[in-house]
Amino acid sequence: MVRAGRAVTCPHRAALATALLVLLAGCTNSSSPANPTKPRRALDTSAPIEAMPHLRGTTEQRLLGFLQARYGDRARLEGAWQDQWEDTEVDAQRPVTREVCAREPVHRDGRARTLLAVCQRLEDAASVEPGRIDLYALQVGEDARVPKDTSGLEQLMALEVPFRIIAQRLQSQYGQWGAPGTVGIVGLGPQRDAFIITHPWARRGATRITRSYVAMHGDYLREVASYRDHLDNDRRQDCDAERSGCEDARYNIDFSTQLGSDEAVDGFWPLIVRGTGQDCAGPFQEYHRLIFDPTLRAYAVPDSLQREGCGTP
Question: Rounded to whole angstroms, how far apart are CA atoms 182 and 119?
Fold first, then answer.
């Protein structure tokens, strides 16, 4: 690695240049799709973790290059774009709207990373179909700044940090009507950054909202917690002698989450969850302290935080 303004001493410059160009050429993907009218490859959780040394430029330029390599030339950092999604379950292409729904640089263990989420909303989805979210932890890097009179070989060698995919979790399913909900980025511990996904589900007058956390753990992005954020049946049918499938009891419960200040377990702070509102039996309060379990590689979540309504899950 060569810093800006620093000379390179190389007695065999021609040989080194040839070797470096061969190495870079070997890292380039020369394959092209057989049918350019079809969408780019279907993304799934088995996609390889690959380096992309051909991405050059500033952080923004590299991120945009990564998105367009993955999702096509319409991809952008700001705003949504229309695309086609290859639904392998029905062997058909379906219209989809994609957008970067969360992006944030983080610094952990002396390393700079970028957390990136791409939300995908299916345009013709049924009520039971979830949306999709692709989650990435990236080492974006940036070109070294070198003087204009630096030789071509030295400019090639000045690529300080290559672009690299640290981890990815693709085609995660959340929400309904083809919409995945909302995505944010939070800290779950001194060295633990996570995506927080808030996704609703409504059915027969009842609504439930779930919050899910996906965090870096080891070399993977894992879902480390998922539990209710809200429950109600405000749009339920009132019961009378003429109708069936109705509910007499009304409930409306909100759950709030705070990070505990105790010592972290495997880098994760406790989650303090409080529920308040109206349960089927009347005024309601609930308290939970969720602790990360290293054997589960997730927080231990009680059944009461995963229930559908007043009753058990």
Answer: 9
